[in-house]
Amino acid sequence: MNIVVLIKFVPDLVEDLEIDASTSLLDRSFLRLIPNELDEHALEEAILLKERLGGTVTAITVDFGDVDETLFTAVAKGTDRVVKITGEDFSQGVSNEKLAAIFQGVLADLPCDLILTGTQAVDDLDGFVGALLAERLGLPYVGYVTKIDVQDGKLVARKEYPGGLNADIEISGPAVLGIQAAEKPPRYVVTSKVMEAMKKASIDEQEAGEASVEAELPVQRMSLPETGARAEMIEGSAADVAAALLKLFRERGVLA
Amino acid sequence: MSDIWVVIEILRGEVKEISYTMLAAGRQLADGLKGKLSALLIGHNAQALASTLGAADRVLCVDHADLAEFNPEAYLRVTTAALQEHSPRLVLFGHTAIGTDLACGAACRLKWPVATSCRTFAAAGGELRYSSLTCGGKIIAEGPIPEPNCLATVMPGGYKAEAGKVNKTPAVETLSPPALDGVRTRFKQYIEPPAGDVDIAKQPILVSVGRGIQNKDNVALVEGLAKALGGVVSGSRPVIDQEWLPTTRLVGKSGKQVKPKLYLAVGISGAPEHLEGVPEAELMVAINTDAKAPIFDVAHFGTTCDALKLVPALTAQIQ
Prior knowledge:
The structure holds two protein chains of two kinds.
Chain A lengths: L1 E6 L1 E3 L7 E2 L4 E2 L6 E3 L1 H17 L2 E7 L5 H10 L3 E6 L9 H12 L6 E5 L10 H9 L3 E11 L2 E7 L5 E6 L3 E5 L11 H10 L2 E5 L13 E3 L8 E2 L4 H14 L5
Parallel strand pairs in A: 1-6, 1-8, 6-7, 7-13, 8-12, 9-12
Antiparallel strand pairs in A: 2-5, 3-4, 9-10, 10-11
Helix pairs in contact in A: 2-5, 3-4
Chain B lengths: L3 E4 L2 E2 L2 E2 L1 H17 L3 E7 L14 E6 L8 H15 L3 E5 L4 H12 L3 E11 L2 E8 L4 E6 L5 E5 L16 E5 L9 E7 L13 E5 L6 H14 L2 E4 L1 H5 L20 E5 L5 H4 L7 E5 L7 H4 L2 E3 L3 H12 L1
Parallel strand pairs in B: 1-4, 1-6, 4-5, 5-11, 6-10, 7-10, 13-14, 13-15, 15-16, 16-17
Antiparallel strand pairs in B: 2-3, 7-8, 8-9
Helix pairs in contact in B: 2-3, 4-8
């Protein structure tokens, strides 16, 4: 099975996010971009499938800036081919509608049996890339997938519902699946393996084609949530805070 | 057009709570625009559920044996056909495993824009606006809802589901489904949640761990605290995905909704998907070194004390 994995870069939420006063949008000047966590799960699921069923894995991202290390890490994990889409400074942010259009252009020349990406990305606002792309390619889409199997020549995607309930959805032919979690936590590779991949493998660069977007969602203004009903903060050393919490639990009848 | 539509979400024959949240939102918007509120009910032998959707002016039922359970491609075909024909101003879907599959696919097929993870909407002077929560709840994004048609996915929190439960009988109409031959997806079976573990939804004391706990070994620390408190350990998504805790312990959108007397959140940032699972803890206390973590906006008490020091200290003091 030949699998393509799409990787999007998103703001690292561990860092402080600021609003640019002149645009009223997210200040991207000092933003640290990291690969979207669920896309890393998508890559893991692709490699697990390859190990089980054979075939190839191709990972594609657009040039969000510092993406080479992520692509070489993908190679070190077992990805056969890595592609970087260039042509614009995507680090300034790109809507999912446009990203789907760009991926569509690249996938036109890249036949495959299965396309995987994270169900969603932390900075999504105008739809999910995988679902938008599937429709552009005329393929079925299933999101929130936590396991993929092949039975009687057909894909079976395990879709996650609330409360621990799952459903198996059978799919005929190629599809785009949005991954919520890989069957196993994404594997870790040591730096030496990544360095080795940097020496041996190369990144295919491909120019982004004309990306036609027909329906765009306007984002006028961003803000940090108001902290109205904020928690009452307890300060002090670990022992002080522990004593305060113990007192609180007793007052509230949580502890006898 | 000033009509608002809500795509009702059913799972195993039950109307999901998010449907009523959407009806509450939709009712306000339809009244604001002086339009009508319609509920689209897709399923098989599900018409009886229409009587629970009284917040809508009318319920449009689409019935077909192939629609008995959620089938992504079949449901998408039914939804887009109905929207194409009726062209409502705004269509609300749940920001859920079902709703997002449909909304994103329909947006692309119809060439209508879609706004995801919306919390609130406003209708003023004939103009509609959305407000959406993104970046793990750390950013609010706002903008106008483009004319003439738009789709949106709705998260809980902005509207009370109770307001969408109206004891009134809506008009019920039947829409015939489009041809469903050649559909490439098929519902095969449900996989039941694993049994045998404690039910965290019924526990009065939960000590819940998040990514901030750093590694699996530290989960044992938290287990010690939970035991001392007479409670059990639960967790947020990253902890479950790392297999530090079994899936039965997952609190949040894709896990369980809990309502403990004490919810002690250790190293949990408080992304919206997690907070969906704790709508009504009697007492919520958050431990997180990031003073800006959204969890502090919902917790009653908080501290930025290092959990790896505080948890053993608290355990020792209780004992």
